[in-house]
Design brief:
single chain; 71 residues; alpha/beta; 17% helix
Length: 71
């Protein structure tokens, strides 16, 4: 099976990567979702409701994205 690489830093996203949007105390990764989509992220892991996204992108909503990033 192909390996899916994940990233929590929007500027490092490359085509086909998974982006984990962490809602930090200073910076909220959810605000970078439009940017990572333009860069080719194929999967988004979010904890907040997000605006409509292209149907080709998988969106996974969880209770706490910081837990996902540590896994």
């Amino acid at each position: 099976a192909p390996k899916l690489t994940y990233c929590v830093i929007s500027r490092k996203i490359k085509e086909g990567m998974l982006f984990v949007a962490i809602a930090g105390t200073v910076v909220d990764g959810h605000k970078y979702i439009p940017d990572v989509v333009k860069k080719g992220a194929s999967v988004l892991v979010v904890e907040k409701e997000i605006e409509s996204i292209d149907e080709s992108i998988t969106v996974i909503r969880v209770g706490d994205t910081s837990v996902v990033a540590r896994a």
